[in-house]
Amino acid sequence: MKHVINALDFTVEEIDELIAIAEDIMMYPDKYSEVCKGKKLATCFYEPSTRTRLSFESAMLSLGGSVLGFSSGESSSAAKGESVADTIRMISCYADICAMRHPKEGAPFVAASYSSIPVINAGDGGHNHPTQTLTDLLTIKNLKGRFSHLTVGFCGDLKFGRTVHSLIDALVRYNDIKFIMISPKELEIPDYLRKEVLDARGTEYREVNILEDVMPELDLLYMTRVQQERFFNEEDYIRLKDSFILDNKKMSLAKEDMFILHPLPRVNEIAVEVDSDPRAVYFKQAKYGVYIRMALIMKLLEVVPC
Ligand code: CP
């Protein structure tokens, strides 16, 4: 049995395989409509979510399976003090696979060690969000056709943005990939990412704080919101929340084939006027999330049709 805790749990070959399955689902959805008949997915979300929880549920329903779960810690026995370890022992009796989101970093890893069903990390604190990374990779593959020879800008909250950390982890494994990190000083990438991932791999990157200066260089721009829920201090959040706002004026500096990704939810960091630009692909990206989660569920349950 395999769990998915970190973006690096997948080899490059496994990512290629999941993407190929997702692309086949997009072309032949009927082929997959009963593959998970009789199987149940539990979504155990201790933290708010729209896309991840509902796309997991949509994925399982599209495969002919069923879903159960909770959408906040307060509505489960966690509110009475039950541990994640005990909860997953129970969920293992009720479902065949579990997607878990938790505000504490490492909670899905702890759950996996007590679980008798596959556990998928659906986001743990500021740490990791591997299925968002798979979604991002499927989006990049479909729009750019490759993961190599790209200059990728990451903009906004690069300190707490777990989707940024997971995507960097995944992309450093490809050739000729360059990163430009665009953030205020206080929200720069964590030191471990700089030393243990980027420097360790010899990946080319630079850190800047003016978006306009680097727009013309980018093949992809990954925007993120400033994560209010991770701040200890409201004053700092208010000071930093509107550090970067992408608008049509800034978009005019970008290449014709530069795409804007965003894991969503968006707050103020992308002006609504940008939504109608064909390079704004964040809503399409959210849709890709269903296909890649369908592929992942089938793979973990070992029910991928030939
Ligand atoms: N991208 C993402 O994780 O969105 P949700 O928080 O709505 O699940």
For this entry, give a set of tags.
306 residues; Rossmann fold; 2 domains; four-stranded parallel β-sheet; 39% helix; 15% strand; binds phosphoric acid mono(formamide)ester
CATH superfamily of the largest domain: Aspartate/ornithine carbamoyltransferase
Give the termini separation: 20 Å
Query: Low-confidence runs (pLDDT<50, min 5 residues)?
Result: none
Strand order of the largest sheet: 7-6-5-8-9
**Contiguous helical run count:** 11
- CATH secondary-structure class of the largest domain: Alpha Beta
Short description:
With 306 residues, this protein is α/β, with parallel strands linked by helices. The chain contains eleven helices and nine strands. 45% of the residues are buried.
Secondary-structure map with pairings?
Elements: H1 12-27, E1 40-45, H2 51-62, E2 66-70, H3 84-94, E3 97-102, H4 107-114, E4 119-124, H5 130-144, E5 150-155, H6 162-171, E6 177-182, H7 191-201, E7 204-208, H8 211-214, E8 220-223, H9 234-240, H10 248-251, E9 259-261, H11 282-301
Parallel strand pairs: 1-2, 1-3, 3-4, 5-6, 5-8, 6-7, 8-9
Helix pairs in contact: 1-5, 1-11, 2-11, 3-4, 5-6, 5-11
Bound molecules: phosphoric acid mono(formamide)ester.
Describe the structure.
The chain has 11 helices and 9 strands. By secondary structure, it is of the alpha/beta class. It folds into 2 domains: 7-128 and 288-301, 3-Layer(aba) Sandwich (Rossmann fold), CATH 3.40.50; 131-285, Rossmann fold, CATH 3.40.50.1370. The strands form 2 sheets. The protein has a 5-stranded parallel beta sheet, covered by helices on one side. Helix 2 (51-62) links the parallel strand 1 (40-45) and strand 2. Helix 5 crosses helix 11. The protein is globular. The two termini are 20 Å apart. The model has no long low-confidence stretch (mean pLDDT 95). The structure holds phosphoric acid mono(formamide)ester. Residues 49-52, 123, 132, 263-265 line the site of phosphoric acid mono(formamide)ester.
